[in-house]
Amino acid sequence: MRQPLFVTAIAATAITLIAAANAPEPSAAIKAAVAASTRTPANTVRDQYRHPAETLSFFGVKPTDTIVEIWPGGGWYTEILAPFTKGKGSYWAASPWPDGNKNIANRQAADAGTYGHVKLAAFPWAEGQPKVPDGTADVVLTFRNVHNWRMGYQRADKADYSAEAFAQMFAMLKPGGTLGIVDHRLPEGASDERERNSGYIKVSTIRRLAQAAGFEFVGASEVNANPKDTADWPKGVWTLPPSLSQKEVDRDRYIAIGESDRMTLRFRKPR
Question: Which residue of 169, 185, 207, 243 has the fewest CB atoms within a 10 Å radius of its CB?
Fold first, then answer.
């Protein structure tokens, strides 16, 4: 049935407002997870750059959700999402199989009370590997990883596999589910080739990949923006903290700039 024009207009306006908005006030559950005593002190210091409470609030996560984190790496967000979902929802850590999940497995062995419920899966998934079942996730999150897929990281031939990655994320989500992405932002006027070697990626590229996989764009937040980052550093994004790849060269300058300028994008799988 065709919707009346005024209903369509209201829906379009709502999406525009979300796109222009910053994150809403974090829920008590999100605040409690960010304040968890089990978090590593070295990780909490970086909250000033990563704004976890505001970021998760923008993505609309709830403790009863089934949440998949793609490539949690060292487990920075795992330290928040594991206690957030414990006893209420589900949390999957999905990484290159099998070595990509070693850090999370080590956490489970050391602290089963906090991490014992975390489920491990492969991503990108290949035949014979454990996967997040299709149509089961309420939320899929990935932090600073799309540029890796674009660069062919973890692939011997360095081929871009970002389209495959988006297709697999789409498959694991329930209809109406949320895809939340944070990544290092490359200015739109920069050469596309810089996405292959700088660690930065354009907003337009991520939106194109998401929409080609079937996602609808919901909105963007500037909660992780850093206007001091010009994204033209000698060693790409790794010039800035925390990598500081230039070591002592201009170290104070890069520390003063802080971590990278980041996009924060929310998409939805259509119902």
Answer: 243
Q: Is the peptide bond before 98 cis (omega within 30 degrees of 0)?
A: yes
Q: What is the largest CA-CA distance in the chain?
A: 64
**Block residue for tokens 């890796």:** 148
CB 173 within 8 A of CB 140: yes
Please provide residue 14's backbone torsions phi and psi, each rounded to the nearest 5 degrees: -60, -45
DSSP code at position 260: P
Average pLDDT over residues 71-81: 97
Task: Give the full edge-to-edge strand order of the sheet including 119-122.
Answer: 119-122, 90-95, 66-70, 137-143, 173-184, 262-268, 216-221
In angstroms, rounded to a whole number, what is the distance separating the alpha carbons of residues 123 and 168? 8
Q: Is the pTM of this model over 0.85?
A: yes
pLDDT in tens, 184-217: 999 999 999 999 999 999 999 999 999 999 999 9
